[in-house]
Specification:
354 residues, alpha/beta, DNA polymerase, domain 1, TIM Barrel, 2 domains, two-stranded parallel ribbon, elongated, cytoplasm, tRNA processing, rRNA (adenine(2503)-C2-)-methyltransferase activity, rRNA binding
């Protein structure tokens, strides 16, 4: 006797829903309707699916579970950034951030920074998330659900709102939850859903070498950002413990292989503190990145209680960037977003649980 397993609706592709509907005696068009309600219109309840009759809804509920995230807290920055703390079905909490960037064209850019784990096992020295340790990986539905629930919330104020970009650089290390992240990317990309372009999604990693190479082979259209933060193994070992397992030599080789396969530039992220924003570090970084197909994104650190790190002065950031540019490396400085609402990963969760 087989036991029917209840499946998470938000984690299902259109093809998976077609297969499930066939198994329970419903027509193909029902699956397509269901997928559009959940993934395109971002509804949170079965009752909102107006063109699906009550009888069919009950049949679907026998196989599928719909678990919207519970908004615990929302903070809004003066620059328009919104930070959300969501509660999951098992009462764990995660964060995600919506950042709006005005464009000169008719379409603004709405970027959602998505979490992929509850907590994080990496424990980077400058990150609030790592201070809380690792709880578990997020499911596909929980990853996608962050984008869907933000869409639902913002559409209450702006019915035409659409997420345009996704960055997997919230709580957790995305490449340590590899399969679920890639499935989430496929779902977010589907034409009958939110239809977010692959090239508008970026995975940020601290340097999980095997998965960087696997990502290049599995999904060459998605962007890659590498949290570099130091040019020497001795320093990076302290900042990013993962470096002890995959030191800089291995990481740079993996980055070379990634760009050879995908022909896409890598974003090398460098967190700048008052301590490391020095000319010597900029010169060493330029030497390390020589020959890499990528550019550097300088990130002045957000002050986080418990890390002891301070933001560098603007003139130090400019001098650091100039050294890289003089060495022929493209460089940008991340626009500060949401500093007045503690937008750094893990800060809101720590406040809530602390």
């Amino acid at each position: 006797m087989s036991i029917m397993v209840n499946i998470e609706l938000r984690g299902c592709s259109e093809d998976e829903l077609i297969k499930i509907c066939k198994e329970i005696g419903l027509k193909r068009f029902r699956a397509i309707q269901l997928f559009q309600w959940v993934q395109q219109k971002a509804v949170r309840t079965w009752e909102e699916m107006k063109n699906i009759g009550e009888r069919d809804r009950q049949t679907l509920r026998s196989r599928l579970s719909l678990y919207p995230l519970e908004k615990v807290r929302e903070q809004r920055s003066k620059d328009g950034t919104r930070k959300y703390l969501f509660r999951l079905e098992d009462s764990e909490t995660i964060e995600c951030v919506l950042m709006d960037y005005a464009r000169t064209s008719s379409r603004d850019r709405h970027t959602v920074c998505v979490s992929t784990q509850v907590g994080c096992a990496v424990g980077c020295a400058f990150c609030a998330t790592g201070l809380e340790g690792f709880r578990r990986n997020l499911s596909v539905g929980e990853i996608v659900g962050q984008v869907l629930d933000i869409t639902h919330l913002v559409r209450q104020e702006d019915p035409d709102f659409q997420v345009t970009n996704i960055v997997f650089m919230g709580m957790g290390e995305p490449l340590l939850n590899y399969d679920q992240v890639l499935q989430a990317i496929q779902l977010l990309n589907q034409a009958q859903g939110l239809n977010i372009g692959m090239r508008r999604m970026t995975i940020s990693t601290c340097g999980v070498v095997p998965q960087i190479i696997q990502l290049a082979k599995d999904n060459p259209q998605v962007g890659l950002a590498v949290s570099l933060h130091a040019s020497q193994d001795e320093v990076r070992n302290k900042l990013i413990p993962m470096n002890r397992r995959y030191p800089l030599t291995q990481l740079m080789e993996a980055c070379q292989e990634y760009t050879q396969i995908t022909h896409r530039r890598i974003t090398f992220e460098v967190a700048l503190t008052a301590e490391n924003a020095k000319r010597e570090e900029a010169e060493a970084l330029a030497k390390l990145l020589k020959g890499q197909f990528g550019y550097v994104n300088l990130i002045p650190v957000n002050p986080v209680a418990g890390t002891g790190m301070e933001r560098p002065k603007p003139e130090l950031i400019r001098r650091f960037a100039q050294v890289l540019e003089d060495a022929g490396i493209s460089v940008s400085s991340r626009e500060e977003r949401g500093a007045d609402i503690d937008a750094a990963c893990g800060q809101l969760r720590r406040q809530w649980e602390g």
